[in-house]
Amino acid sequence: MTPTITKNYQNVVISTGNIISNELGQRRSNEELYDGLKVTLHSDPSEERVVVEVEIDAQHGRVQRATQELNSRLTENGRNEISIGAKIFLNRNSRECVQQAVEALLNILSVTHVDNVVLAYHPNASSGVASATPTATTTAASAVPKSPCSEGIPGSASNWSLRNGPKGVEELKELYQSLEQYALKQKITQLGIADLDAAALEELHKGAQVVPTIAQVNLSTCCVVPAELQEFCAAHDIQLNTHSDPELLLQDEQFAALAPGYTIDWSLRYQVHVRCRGVLTAKGYIVGASRASE
User: Fold this and answer.
1) Which residues are CB-contacts of 255 (< 8 A; sequence separation ≥ 6)?
2) What sign for the dihedral angle of Cα 140, 48, 60, 180?
3) Between β-strands 114-121 and 188-194, what pairing exists: parallel, antiparallel or unpaired?
């Protein structure tokens, strides 16, 4: 297998392309990301090359897989006939990372706006509990953490406010402000947030220029959606959804094995649906990574 990144960029953006086309997109998000990156970052010389490395400048590069196939999926229906949603996964406080993620999303999908973006911010993500990143797909099932319900742990054990404190809430508000700028410019239609308890969501909501209209809750760490959260969302017209994404999609050592010398700064997943039928026509991951400054 031949490594795809051939130059020592300071920053690189990696796009897996449409993972539905190669049957990678029907599993857990951490498995999808790992195997999507593996296919993208290591190409078989005997196969037709569908991965392209683009040098933006000496410090910045981009690795994109199956771009033509992705573009065909995005254009086979009119833009008003499809819905594009994305979720940004961030584990450190960086407004620059949020901006990089949104710009990469718009650029790689070649669109002027997306319909919704959800932010998942977990600065204190646990590598032991929150991540189930596989070293190989076949071992992933055994790495998946048990639900707290089966362990007798109450839902409050995963309370976002308790885990991250007032400092975490202030950081989240700053990161959310970066997304608001895109919403105000009509580059994002709806904003959303993931895994907040009612107190943190209320704090974010009351100071927002563009209020969140989507809230996601992870039922693997909160077996029953708390009544306070349900009530707040109902009172403020916020769509409440469930998900099963881990807080940490890929551990550093896993990514280092795929892209030696690089660490993940941010990652996102996008999904494209045909509106009238609700059919998922494209799904992929985009990752921003960097080298440590020498």
Assistant:
1) 37, 262, 263, 264, 289
2) negative
3) parallel
The token duo for 41 is 């970052």
CB-CB neighbours of 36 under 10 Å: 25
Query: Mind listing the pLDDT tens digit for each residue in 64-123?
Result: 887 888 889 999 999 999 999 999 999 999 999 999 999 999 999 999 999 999 999 999
Report the candidate in 47, 50, 46, 52 with the shortest Cα–Cα distance to residue 13. Answer: 52
pLDDT band at residue 147 under the 50/70/90 scheme:
very low
276 has a pLDDT exceeding 90: no
203 in Cβ contact with 170 (< 8 Å): no
Q: Which of 6, 29, 3, 81 is nearest to 284 (CA)?
A: 29
In the structure, what pLDDT confidence band is assigned to residue 152 with cuts at 50, 70 and 90?
very low
Token pair recorded at residue 11: 């920053």
∠ CA(100), CA(262), CA(255), 5° rounding? 100
74/78 Cα distance (integer angstroms): 8
Coil, helix or strand at residue 199: helix
How confident is the model over 196-219, as a mean pLDDT? 95
- Category of 151 on φ-ψ map: left (φ > 0), alpha (ψ -120 to 50) or beta: alpha
Give CA torsion, residues 187, 191, 193, 198, to 10 deg. Answer: 160
Amino acid at 14: I
**Closest by alpha carbon to 226, among 201, 258, 253?**
201
Backbone φ and ψ for 3, nearest 5 degrees, come out as -60, 140
pLDDT of residue 145: 44
pLDDT band at 28 (very low <50, low <70, confident <90, very high): confident
The HSE-up count of residue 157 (CA atoms within 13 Å, CB side) is 16
